[in-house]
Amino acid sequence: MNMQFANEQEKLLHDIGVLSFVVVDLSLYLDTHPTDRNALEYFKHYNRMANQARQEYSAKYTPLTISCADASECNDWQWALSPMPWEGGCN
C-alpha cells in the first residue's frame, strides 16, 4: 500500500501510530509469552524506534504526550500552547 502524505509532519505522525501499534501488540504478546526472547528483542527494537519518532516529532512540531513536553529548553509551556487534537492539532 502506497500512502500519500501532505507533508513530513503527517508522515511522521502516521509512522508514530504504526510503531505504537506494534509496541502495544508486542507487549500484549509478551504478557502471555514472557520468556520469548525473540519477541522481547522485537519489542525493544520497535519501542526504541517509537520513542525516537515521538522525540523527533516533539522537537520539530509539538509534544504528543506530556512525557514528551521538555520545558528545559524553552520559556513557554509548549504543551498548553499547541493546538489540541480537537482543534486540528493532529491534522
Please describe what this structure looks like.
- The structure is a single chain.
- With 91 residues, the chain is mainly α.
- The chain has a domain at 8-64.
- It is 58% helix and 0% strand.
- The protein has helices at residues 8-32, 37-60, 78-81.
- The longest helix is centred in the first third of the chain and has 25 residues, at 8-32.
- The chain is globular, with a radius of gyration of 16 Å.
- It starts with 7 loop residues before the first helix and ends in a 10-residue tail after the last helix.
How do the helices and strands line up, and which of them pair or pack?
Layout: H1 8-32, H2 37-60, H3 78-81
Gist of the model:
With 91 residues, the protein is mostly helical.
Q: Helical content, roughly?
A: 55-70%
Going by helix content, strand content and strand pairing, the class is mainly alpha
The Rg value, from CA coordinates, equals 16 Å
Low-confidence stretches: none
Per DSSP E runs of 2 or more residues, the count of β-strands stands at 0
Number of helices: 3
Biggest sheet overview: none
- Relative strand content: under 5%
Average pLDDT: 84
Query: Secondary-structure element sequence?
Result: HHH
| Cα shape | globular
Distance between the termini: 21 Å
Task: Name some characteristics of this structure.
58% helix; 91 residues; 3 helices; single chain; globular; mainly alpha
